[in-house]
Each structure stands twice: as C-alpha cells, then as structure tokens.
Amino acid sequence: MDKKLINFGVSIGQIIFMPGVAIQFFIVSLCIGQSFGTEITIIWIITSIITSTILTIATPPIPGGGLSCYTILFTQLGIPSAGIALVISIELLMDAFLTACNLAFLQTELVLSAKKLNLLDEEKLRK
Questions:
Q1: Which of 10, 54, 98, 116 has the fewest C-beta atoms under 10 angstroms from its C-beta?
Q2: Which residue windows are transmembrane per the record (predicted)?
C-alpha cells in the first residue's frame, strides 16, 4: 500500500472511524432502555441509530471516552440517568475489545480503499 494512504488513513481513522463503538451505543441503549421500561418504537430505534452514529464521531479516542456520550444518548432517548451506572461497568469491560475491533475494521477498510484506488500491490500482499 502507498505510505501516504497509510499515514493519512490510520491517523484520521483512529479518531473518527469507530464502527464498534456505534454498534455498542445502539445495543446498550436498546438493552438499558428496555430494562428501564422505556417504550421502544420505530422512531425511537431510528433516533437511537442516528444519535449513536453522530456520537461515535464525537467520542474522544481515549480509554473510557464513550462514557461521556452516554449522558447525551440517554437524555435524547428518554432513558433514566440511573442507567449510566450499568453502562460504566459494561464500558470498562468492553473498551479494550472495541478498540481491537475498531482497529481491525480500520485496517480492512484501508486495504479495500487501496484496492479501489489502485494503490495496492497484490503481489506483495499474497507473499
């Protein structure tokens, strides 16, 4: 792969490309919302997906950075703030796993982007 693509893609990707966090935001909000008796409708699910996606971009790329976003997510979805106590225990366990997932997704996306842009030397990749 071209060094320019790697340097640009990895540095930007580690900051804003976090698909694992987006999935976690949605699933956690769904589970916590249901456990606290929040009415879950189609509009609620769409709002959760959109808010989770926006918050994924806003999440700081530091350990525990997602915790600051749950307050916004829960307020937007009408989930009681007591659910944040449950999220803290989940977030601390899942943070390392999500970091590994995000980096694996980023590397895969960079290889696919390099192939689309004809910047991938497939012979070196096969060796």
A1: 116
A2: 12-33, 40-62, 82-106
pLDDT category of residue 47 using cuts at 50, 70 and 90: very high
Contacts of 106 (CB under 8 A, 6+ apart): 9, 10, 13, 14, 17
* Residue 39 φ/ψ, nearest 5 degrees: -70, 120
pLDDT of residue 30: 95
Nearest to 103 by CA among 93, 115, 95: 95
**Cα-trace Rg, the chain:** 17
Q: Give the Cα separation of 49 and 45 in Å (integer).
A: 6
Where are the domains positioned within the chain? 20-121
User: Which sign does the torsion angle of CA 81, 24, 100, 13 carry?
Assistant: negative
- 């959760």: which residue's tokens? 48
Return d(Cα 127, Cα 37) in angstroms, integer.
54
Mean pLDDT value across the chain: 88
